[in-house]
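go over whats below:
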Amino acid sequence: MTSQEKQATVKNSPTDGTESLETKIAEMKNIPTEKDLTNLLSEGILVVTFNKLDGDERVMTCTKNVKVIPEGSLPKNSKTPKVQGLVTVWDVNAKGWRSFKYDRVTKVEMQ
């Protein structure tokens, strides 16, 4: 990379560099960024594959779409602070709330 290319990259990057790094990692893993994943989950049902903390692989059919989540299970307090890197979803098969760390996601598929 030439010095001009480096300057252009720095100029077009966010000041903290996190967004471009997250985007590059998502592209390398062939998955959406955390923000895009959250948006997709809000719109429909996805099959997300990730590695659990103990190293086991988990495949979960999940959503954040309020049209799919049973009324009695909808979040009561939407002002819960968001923890960066932690994605909380409704597990369609287990019929309960689950969460996973975004950086452990290995595959995302539309159902």
